[in-house]
Amino acid sequence: MPRNQGFVLASRPTGVAVADNFRFFEKDTPAIADGQVLVRHHYLSLDPYMRGRMDESKSYAASQQIDDVMIGGTVGEVVESRHPKFAVGDKVVGMGGWQTYSVSDGVGLNKVMPGIPIQAFLGPVGMPGVTAWYGLNKIIAPKPGETVLVSAATGAVGSVVGQLAKAAGARAVGIAGGAEKCRFAIDELGFDACVDHRSETFAADFKAALPNGIDGYFENVGGKCFTLASRRLNDFARVAICGLIASYEGAETSSLDDLRILLVKRAKIEGFIVSDHLPLWPQALGELAGAVATGKLKWRETVADGIQAAPAAFFGMLRGKNFGKQLVKLI
Q1: Residue 196 forms beta bridges with which residues?
Q2: Which of 14, 68, 149, 209 would be 193's cystine partner, CB 3.0–4.6 Å?
Q3: Rounded to an integer, what distance in angstroms lies between the CA atom of residue 194 and that of residue 186?
Q4: Could you report how far apart the first and last alpha carbons of the chain are, in Å?
Q5: d(CA 297, CA 189)
Q6: Distance from the Cα of residue 134 to its chain's centroid
């Protein structure tokens, strides 16, 4: 049988997540039963939500269990099948976790369409892309000429938000970490402006990039970005809160310093989890796939090599070291 390698959650973090929170394993893949498939993973997706799952706290989803394979989206190929809907050679996307092989009963496993790079189904044509699509279209719903601000503008979600906002006729302004990322947001993704949150002049640059205020804000980061954005909201602004990565490990707090802002501006703030909106996924994925296939939707990846690189790549992603979607190449 093929040898499977991967990581389980060995312990819960106390503050910042560290390598000892994970434990590497290697073992034979099990024999599959009727109704099951064996999938060889090509890529593993690393995403901010994983950090929250490592903690034992009440949330929108169950905590990652100790000694279980770490949760994660994967895309790969069926190498053995005893399932009527899947054949050997099918390319599939699912939640295979931090491992090189997984056994599935087909639930949550979907075939990917040809003509698009397989790893795109973990990014712009996957959960991050649908997250961007939902938050922008269903919460912010920008009108032509409005200003949409997005934090983590060159990340897997933010990069799609900005491009969709531009396609809707809005002015897209991004926040990113570093001059290189800001140049990419403007030159490659088509943002109208991008502000470097690492700059010593961040607050002044932020104000200058938003002379007409903010009509829609897509929040991926929180912390000081959220504080500054809240002070520049226009009347009837819409804020979609997707993530608060700045506060996941205690680096910054994410709070509204004056609740009166929401009343005076008649603003709407809505947090959302994209898995709550599964009926809309087919529409979103169809639109996103079409945009990727025609080259209208661009994206960038940071790829770590081999399953053993997953923990270090995960820590780097939490600290903003990745450029675009963070993946681990497994084959």
Answers
A1: 176
A2: 209
A3: 7
A4: 17
A5: 8
A6: 13
- Do strands 193-196 and 37-45 pair parallel, antiparallel, or not at all (unpaired)? unpaired
CB 78 within 8 A of CB 93: no
Q: What is the DSSP letter of 239?
A: E
**Dist CA 69 CA 145 (whole Å):** 47
Rg of the chain's alpha carbons, rounded to an integer? 20
Residue-wise pLDDT tens for the chain (331 aa)? 899 999 999 999 998 999 999 999 999 999 999 999 999 999 999 999 999 999 998 778 889 999 999 999 999 999 999 999 999 999 999 999 999 999 999 999 999 989 899 999 999 999 999 999 999 999 999 999 999 999 999 999 999 999 999 999 999 999 999 999 999 999 999 999 999 999 999 999 999 999 999 999 999 998 889 999 999 999 999 999 999 888 777 667 777 778 899 999 999 999 999 999 999 999 999 999 999 999 999 999 999 999 999 999 999 999 989 999 999 999 8
Residue 125: Cβ within 10 Å count:
29
Distance CA 55, CA 42 (A): 28
Residues 108 and 171 in one domain: no
End position of a domain, from candidates 243, 260, 275: 275
Write the burial class of residue 143 (CB in 10 Å: 0-12 exposed, 13-18 middle, 19+ buried): exposed
Q: Is 114 strand, coil or helix? A: coil
From residue 204, alpha-carbon distances to 51, 201, 211, 223, 313 in Å are 32, 5, 11, 17, 32
Residue 16 lies in a domain: yes
| Containing structural domain, residue 238 | 127-275
Residue 25 is given by DSSP the state E
Pairing, β 233-241 against β 268-271: parallel
Going 291 to 118 to 22 to 177, the CA torsion angle's sign is: negative
Q: Is residue 237 within 8 Å of residue 267, measured between CB atoms?
A: yes
Residues 255, 160, single domain; the answer is: yes
Q: Are residues 317 and 255 in the same domain?
A: no
